[in-house]
């Protein structure tokens, strides 16, 4: 194919083939992609970076995803549940530091106990935040009733990554059983939309067996699903997982970072007014990673406010950053990164997805 990157961008001619061409762009061409994404970001969502204080509620998980450090079968993972008192402290901290929003993330459980625990946290978040705190949930696949209940109790956004939109690849990175069904995950995304959530999804970038074609399809998948938010980042191998055996077949760390930045930039070009997170996994591979993501299209950051005691145990992948930091340190670091990227922190605002408001009209 001989179409140039410049002409694809100019004609806005995006399909699987042209997106692969863009993902394979060389250094010089990539600059064009990044600068186009930066300019779209500036026009459509501005330079404010919204914060979501991230609470990792529990690493107990019913799933056994082949890439994830907190998978059910990992016996080296010390399991925890954050106590009510600590949750309240963390919520209060998010309010005091004017973060505007919270994300409650957890290993995936569908037990009654777990569902009720999340109910209670939502109620407390509404009280402590006086209704002013945006709440995002990232608690996996649940029934319609559960999604509806959580929506009623004040959660307005939900993150559920598709991980890979290619069903074949999905089954290479998950066990092939009822608990890890691709169609169920797709249905869950539809359910979330129909319950009125701002819906976020995302994928891992640089997975073993993943081709450029898969990533191009991931971008089109997100566009076609008309998502409101995205969190995606590089795949990082974890020693205690089955996929670790393929570590020698992976792209180099710098290639994975570059590819992740390209994915973010291209998604910003495709979906101009959505919220895109600059993810922790990027920072795990490169200290500059999260900052670079802000420069090429991301506009959301999720400082970890999980109480220090538990943080080291929510290790989805190796070298997760901020594991030894207390919340305050990590917030200060983050503010420096935001400023260095030429952005400003959007303190005290929820920072809803512009796309969602437009989609609701
Ligand atoms: N590398 C990168 N991301 C990972 N996640 C889980 N394990 C890994 C890993 N090894 C991501 C998944 C999940 C999110 C919470 O963390 O995409 O949805």
Report on the biggest sheet.
9 strands, parallel
Detail the poorly predicted runs. Answer: none
CATH topology: TIM Barrel
Counting DSSP E segments of at least 2 residues, the number of strands comes to 11
Helix content: 40-55%
H-E string: HHHEHEHEHEHHEEHEEHEHHEHHEH
Identify the bound ligands. Answer: 5'-deoxyadenosine
| Number of structural units classed as domains | 1
- Report the portion of residues in β strands: 5-15%
Alpha-carbon distance between the termini?
Answer: 40 Å
Look at the structure and name the CATH superfamily: Aldolase class I
What is the residue-mean pLDDT, rounded to a whole number?
A: 94
CATH architecture label: Alpha-Beta Barrel
CATH C-level category: Alpha Beta
3D shape: globular
Describe the fold and architecture.
With 361 residues, the protein is of the alpha/beta class. 45% of the residues lie in helices and 12% in strands. It has 15 helices and eleven strands. Helix 6 (144-152) links the parallel strand 3 (134-138) and strand 4 (157-159). The mean pLDDT is 94. The structure holds 5'-deoxyadenosine. 5'-deoxyadenosine binds at residues 67-68, 161, 163, 204, 235-236, 238, 281, 316-317.
């Amino acid at each position: 194919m001989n179409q140039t990157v410049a002409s694809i961008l100019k004609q806005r001619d995006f399909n699987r083939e042209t997106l692969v061409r863009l993902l394979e762009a060389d250094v010089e061409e990539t600059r064009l992609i990044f600068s186009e994404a930066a300019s779209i970001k500036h026009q459509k969502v501005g330079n404010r970076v919204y914060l979501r204080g991230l609470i990792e509620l529990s690493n107990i998980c019913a799933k056994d995803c082949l890439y994830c450090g907190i998978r059910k079968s990992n016996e080296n993972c010390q399991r925890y549940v954050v106590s009510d008192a600590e949750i309240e402290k963390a919520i209060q901290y998010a309010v005091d530091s004017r973060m505007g929003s919270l994300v409650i993330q957890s290993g995936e459980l569908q037990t009654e106990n777990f569902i009720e625990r999340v109910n209670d946290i939502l109620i407390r978040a509404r009280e402590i935040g006086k209704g002013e705190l945006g709440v995002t949930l990232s608690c996996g696949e649940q029934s319609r009733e559960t999604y509806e209940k959580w929506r009623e109790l004040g959660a307005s956004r939900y993150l559920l990554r598709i991980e890979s939109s290619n069903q074949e690849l999905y089954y290479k990175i998950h066990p092939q059983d009822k608990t890890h069904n691709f169609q169920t995950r797709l249905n869950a995304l539809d359910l979330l939309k129909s319950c009125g959530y701002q819906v976020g999804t995302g994928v891992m970038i640089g997975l073993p067996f993943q081709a450029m074609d898969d990533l191009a399809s991931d971008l089109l998948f997100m566009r076609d699903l008309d998502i409101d938010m995205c969190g995606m980042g590089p795949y990082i191998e974890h020693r205690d997982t089955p996929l670790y055996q393929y570590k020698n077949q992976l792209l180099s760390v710098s290639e994975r970072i570059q590819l992740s930045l390209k994915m973010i930039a291209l998604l910003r070009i495709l979906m101009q007014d959505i919220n895109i997170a600059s993810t922790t996994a990027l920072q795990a591979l490169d200290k500059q990673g999260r900052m670079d993501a802000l420069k090429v299209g991301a506009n959301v950051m999720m400082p970890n406010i999980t109480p220090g005691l538990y943080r080291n145990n929510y290790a989805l992948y190796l070298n997760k950053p901020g594991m030894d930091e207390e919340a305050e340190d990590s917030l200060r670091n983050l503010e420096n990164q935001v400023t260095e990227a030429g952005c400003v922190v959007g303190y005290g605002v929820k920072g809803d997805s512009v796309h969602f408001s437009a989609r609701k009209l």
